[in-house]
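User: Predict the complex with flavin-adenine dinucleotide.
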Amino acid sequence: IKEKIQALKPNQRFISFEFFPPKTDSGFRNLLARLNRMSAMNPLFITVTWGAGGSTSEKSLDLAATCQNDLGLTTVLHLTCTNTNKEIIDDALKKAKENGIRNILALRGDPPRAEEYWTPNCDFNSAVDLVRYIKEQYNDYFCIGVAGYPEGHVDGSDSLGQNPQKDIPYLVEKVEAGADFIITQLFYDVDKFISYNKLLKSVPELKDTTLIPGLMPITTYKVFTRASKLSHASIPKAISSKLEASIGNDDAIKGIGVDIMTDIIERITAETDIKGFHFYSLNLEKAVASVINRSHILQTYLENSPSIESEMNDDAIA
Ligand code: FAD
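Assistant: Here is the predicted structure with flavin-adenine dinucleotide placed in the model:
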């Protein structure tokens, strides 16, 4: 990924998509068909999530290997390092390499929901330990991504709430340990992302690391509120009022969602030097395609992309 980003022309932009492994075989088959269609949007890479504690290890590896080898997509395997054991991590890295996967998103993971008090295992306490481990074991074979939080990680919260400044030393540690790029937590407050980008640019150790904003298109009001709550993303008043006025009208919510995402992309493109946008697709195609179709700025700079309109029509989209 690092090389692919470096090879972009100065004004070129990219998109990338996140997928999670479906639970059933028929879900897997449906997703492959959708992935095939979505590859027409020409993502620079796709990522495959990893269930907390390695709960989806087999399915994540399966999906990642299929994307890399059968679909020819540059694939990033997410990997979490806490609440798991070293064998699971060793096995994942070995299988990723055997399948030609060159990119890992190195994450800490969250405490299991049922456990109020959480003791990370002794090998890995935070994502930086995984970044160091991958470097120790594989040198530069893997290009490594890490997570960033435009509103600050909830673990660093104090009486004033979340604060991105507090994460900076940990992000510096991850980059110094060998991380090549940063994908952010989803956000809807574009001002917070723009400030975060400025903050990272002001830190000498971070200023040259690729920052990729994570965007989750709005599909339904319920999913939107759930996802923003789980990820501790704040919702600007202008956005919540627009959506609240249309609760119960799913088509209107989808349309407003496309407008909101398009505005976010246009602001970021106009006010920063961000090169790419990562879409949390939730394995859905239409919402992502609608946003990319609508975003004229993105269209202009996504060189070599076939017209999405001609590739995608409502009949083809799940
Ligand atoms: P870390 O980088 O370890 O840090 C998280 C926070 O912990 C820091 O910001 C800081 O507040 C604190 N911290 C870190 N180091 C220290 C230290 N030495 N001392 C004190 N405090 C410290 N989860 C999954 O289970 N599966 C996935 O596939 C997945 N994909 C994700 C993809 C993206 C792009 C993002 C943003 C998150 C993803 N997550 C996933 C969620 C992630 O596991 C959680 O957000 C987790 O709480 C933190 O992971 P991290 O890698 O950011 O942790």
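Residues 250-271 form the longest helix (22 residues).
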